[in-house]
Amino acid sequence: MLVTLTIIRYPKKYIPFAVLAMAVHRLPLWFNKNISFYKLLGCGKNGTFDKHPDWQQWGILVVHDALAEAATFNAASHLNNLYGPFINKWLHFFNCETWTIFLEPIEGHGRWDGKEPFGSLAKQTNYNGLIATLTRATIRLNKLNAFWQNVAAASNEMAGAKGFVTSVGIGEMPYIKQATFSIWQSKEDMKAFAYQMHQHTAIIQKTRKENWYSEDMFVRFKPLKTIGTLNGSDPLAGKL
């Protein structure tokens, strides 16, 4: 199994086509026999959960079941090989900037649309190198106000946390289905933020006590490789 997340930035003049892609790109992904799970995603403005979408930035997250090792993919052809010729030509035609990270799922729990798309994972492993995390949830409608009132403070803490590398806010549905993909220097740094930073710890406790989510998932990945840039640079340059 190989997981890829591609973050896509459209030139501002092509924003209508970025929105259209959320519908149009479903078919080629659905028909791709190498793909067992995919999500077309919008992005928030501040690298995490955000009420305000970044209309230029979008994402594709895919689980590939029958692909070669990440090391075999090159910059010239990776989008074609990962997502097929239609999506590849679309992104090139609209002069999109893309950044793709190749991932190996190693730990996690929870479900996404009732599925375990990354397989049955251990809750803990001995791995402690550079690590990526995906935290996603479907927020109950009667808990939306509580969720959004508490998110900003924790987001501000994450950006300044020890070992933080970068993050992207992604989501399937504005306000309701939200996720954060973040990268950390080590599992210890990630855990220190999750369980020792005051605001984040308080939110974790509230989500459990007040039952904010109808479904949630937390998965850790080993980053394998990156291709491309995001806002002009590779966030993991020199780290892999």
Layout of strands and helices, then pairs:
Layout: E1 2-9, H1 15-24, H2 26-31, E2 35-44, E3 53-64, H3 78-83, H4 85-93, E4 97-110, E5 131-139, H5 144-159, E6 164-173, E7 177-184, H6 187-196, H7 198-210, E8 213-228
Antiparallel strand pairs: 1-3, 1-4, 2-3, 2-6, 4-8, 5-7, 5-8, 6-7
Describe this structure in words.
The chain has 240 residues and is an alpha+beta fold. It has one domain (2-228): Alpha-Beta Plaits. It has 7 helices and 8 strands, in the order E-H-H-E-E-H-H-E-E-H-E-E-H-H-E. A hairpin with an 8-residue loop joins strand 2 (35-44) and strand 3 (53-64). Helix 5 runs antiparallel to helix 7. The model has no long low-confidence stretch (mean pLDDT 90).
Features:
eight-stranded antiparallel beta barrel, alpha+beta, 240 residues, single chain, Alpha-Beta Plaits
Could you provide a short overview of the structure?
It contains seven helices and eight strands; from the N terminus they run βααββααββαββααβ.
β-strand number? 8
| Global geometry | globular
Second CATH tier, the architecture: 2-Layer Sandwich
Beta-strand share of residues: 35-45%
Head-to-tail CA distance between termini: 20 Å
Task: Round the Cα radius of gyration to an integer and report it.
Answer: 17 Å
Q: What's the mean pLDDT score?
A: 90
SS field, number of helical segments: 7
Name of the CATH class:
Alpha Beta
